[in-house]
Amino acid sequence: MEPQTSQNGVVAVCILKGGMGKSTIAINLAHRLQKNHGKTVYVDVDKNGHGTEFLGFGEAYNKNGQLENVIFRDTHPSELLIETEWGFSVVPSSTEMSTINDRMKNQMNADVILKNEIVDPLRGEGYEYVVLDTPGDPSKVADNALVAAQSFIVPVIPGQGSISGLERIMESQLLPIIEATDGAADILAITPNMLSESIRPRKPDRRLLEDLNENWVDYLPQYARITDEQWEQIDDQGRGDIPLPGIRERDALSDSFTENKPVAEYDSSCDQIKHFDTLAGIVAERA
Amino acid sequence: MDSSNLRNQLDQVKEGASEQDEADEDLGNETETTTDESATDSKTETADPSETTGPAFAAQTSKKLSIYPNEETARLIKVLCNSVENNLIALGHDDFEVREAHDAMVRFAHEHPQKVTELVLEARDLDPDAVDDLP
Ligand SMILES: Nc1ncnc2c1ncn2[C@@H]1O[C@H](COP(=O)(O)OP(=O)(O)OP(=O)(O)O)[C@@H](O)[C@H]1O
Ligand SMILES: [Mg+2]
């Protein structure tokens, strides 16, 4: 059964763990959504502001007052918008985020504040797609982001306990939302990230890919799927024309941020850009 | 998948994982196993804070060392410490000290010299699987 999605164009890139590539994927997803599908805004709600800094907006991150006024007073979130030369807009994170998180806890309807004060008004300004970059630890702000999004993309990397991070966020945060909305909310994709070129047996990459293909294949984008027959072929005869799965580790993906750009603006020949296009297609169709 | 399937699937996966993990022995999965257990345990047993024993060794008996990881890698120490701290909290121990993770990191690496060699090779852009050919 195809679940009915809420279809509001809002997606959260999320996992309860740091360093999985949430910001990398959120930024490049926003870029490809804007490029291929429609007006997009990237919203960084992670208090660490890494995504904001990746894009070179550290100054905005350190500026005080604005975000609090948007969330707790009547300031419109368009006041926070930064237009970029790459097409999509950015709502930067802020050093105020922790204070905001604490204040949120005492509010009525504490889980829909971000939706009401930022996401919906921005949608009203004509943004078709909103990409939320979420924190790696549980917080009120994170709950808010997930409730606002109802559509989730979850990145996992080889090793480092990322499978347990995946199970944790599913159990403690995503499932409750999905169940409460009777399946209107949904996980759009679980995507591997930072894969190396090695898929030899028993290596962390292999274990991750086997685990995902065995347990979560319905959520895997095509670029990460490997069938049992393909594994056999890989082990018996070599990989042949079976493509290496994505998203792989690429210098361009991290170096682009030292130049404060999405990867396609930094090196348009990077062979992983197509995977962000795939994710953007999934979001455009289902988020 | 609809939501009830998703829950069933998640329960199944978690059951399978705890059996399978015991057989596994390399770096990635050991980390996974530990965190895995924390995720399940925190649900089944309510953690009793009075059980908390405190750090295994005192700050005075720790040794200050300089280590020289690559800048990017250095950032991961903090990420790792956060994960360990979260896991301990989930198990009812809210008195984590960073030195404990540092101590465990060194012991962990010491038990896995081959894996460390692999990572060094990989950082040089050499084939990490070459360690499989070591005598
Ligand atoms: N596919 C990739 N190839 C190369 N580098 C990557 C890739 N994905 C992520 N990185 C790098 O790994 C680091 C962590 O990624 P990122 O900051 O996107 O993760 P995160 O989950 O948002 O982390 P945090 O919890 O710190 O916000 C960054 O330095 C990023 O440049
Ligand atoms: Mg981030």
TrEMBL record, chain A:
<dbReference type="InterPro" id="IPR050678">
    <property type="entry name" value="DNA_Partitioning_ATPase"/>
</dbReference>
<protein>
    <submittedName>
        <fullName>ParA family protein</fullName>
    </submittedName>
</protein>
<dbReference type="InterPro" id="IPR027417">
    <property type="entry name" value="P-loop_NTPase"/>
</dbReference>
<dbReference type="InterPro" id="IPR025669">
    <property type="entry name" value="AAA_dom"/>
</dbReference>
<dbReference type="Pfam" id="PF13614">
    <property type="entry name" value="AAA_31"/>
</dbReference>
<feature type="domain" description="AAA">
    <location>
        <begin position="10"/>
        <end position="171"/>
    </location>
</feature>
From TrEMBL, chain B:
<feature type="compositionally biased region" description="Polar residues">
    <location>
        <begin position="47"/>
        <end position="63"/>
    </location>
</feature>
<feature type="region of interest" description="Disordered">
    <location>
        <begin position="1"/>
        <end position="63"/>
    </location>
</feature>
<protein>
    <submittedName>
        <fullName>Uncharacterized protein</fullName>
    </submittedName>
</protein>
<feature type="compositionally biased region" description="Acidic residues">
    <location>
        <begin position="18"/>
        <end position="39"/>
    </location>
</feature>
<dbReference type="Pfam" id="PF25925">
    <property type="entry name" value="DUF7970"/>
</dbReference>
<feature type="compositionally biased region" description="Polar residues">
    <location>
        <begin position="1"/>
        <end position="11"/>
    </location>
</feature>
<dbReference type="InterPro" id="IPR058276">
    <property type="entry name" value="DUF7970"/>
</dbReference>
